[in-house]
Amino acid sequence: MVLAVGELARELRCFHVTRYRIISQKLSNLKKPKKIIFLSDLHNYCYGKENEPLFRAVVREKPDLILVGGDMLLRKDHSSYEHTVKFLSRLPAVCPVYYANGNHEQKMKERPRKYKRSFWDYKRQLEKAGIRFLENESVTLLWDENRIRITGLEIPLLGYERWTRNRISKADIEARIGEAGEAYEILMAHHPAHIPAYHDWGADLILSGHYHGGVMRIPFIGGVVAPDFTLFPNYSGGCYEIGDGTAVVSKGLGVHSVPIRLFNPAEIVVMEF
């Protein structure tokens, strides 16, 4: 019991870097390696003074891109996101940064009567720092001669409800962001329950979060419980082959609904191409 309590306390104070090698025929002629950092689910958590250890870890990686997968703040009333804004605002000095909303940002955006201008003030500060939000929008980049399209899919709040979460289809996605193209398609979509639909849409690389690694992880089984209290959720955290594509689900950087981690350290995700 003492060991378990000690491990719980340690994992709430620490994060580590998880590395994945991403291979795709569409990127087979890259002239030099590329690196993307994926950050998700910080939930206003602060590592050290103003997240300095987190920032230093990002800088050490020398990434080509930073993608932010949502839920970096909390939707609670009177919750301060000052530390989160300060941390994120430093990232554009490292490399280009693109941000897709999670359910916390989405709830603040969809319910202004309750949350006032909190989301819009948060977004304005980050945009002023140089971060680009992708809200059912895409940006196309060139890696050598390879076209890379990064899209942020906004999932409405109903798409996070337990009884409707499997109802998002390829047609729903196309209605929001159009059809997939010939470029290497990176889709940031916060909820991993819809990964089969994201793949059907045509994503080559799916980036999700939301499940916090399943809170506790059991070897050879995976995460135990999702934030909506679904037991043993699929795609709780890790790198998955989906047909001819890949899905990477971050275990997150913070905690929320179930404020513990066990055998499930917080992580910065580094993808090397």
TrEMBL record:
Q: Name one GO cellular component term.
A: membrane
Task: Alphabetically list the UniProt keywords.
Answer: Hydrolase, Metal-binding
One of the GO biological process terms:
lipid A biosynthetic process
- Does Coiled coil show up as a keyword for this record? no
The keyword Metal-binding is annotated on this UniProt entry: yes
Q: Per its UniProt record, what InterPro entries does this chain match?
A: Calcineurin-like_PHP, Metallo-depent_PP-like, Metallophosphoesterase_sf
Q: Where is the Calcineurin-like phosphoesterase domain?
A: 35-213
- Show the Pfam families listed in the entry: Metallophos
**Which superkingdom does the taxonomy of this entry point to?**
Bacteria
- Gene Ontology MF: a single term: metal ion binding
Gene3D superfamilies for the chain: 3.60.21.10
Xref: PANTHER family: PHOSPHODIESTERASE YAEI (PTHR31302:SF31), TRANSMEMBRANE PROTEIN WITH METALLOPHOSPHOESTERASE DOMAIN-RELATED (PTHR31302)
Can you name this protein?
Metallophosphoesterase
Recorded source organism is Sporofaciens musculi
Q: List the lineage, top down.
A: Bacteria, Bacillati, Bacillota, Clostridia, Lachnospirales
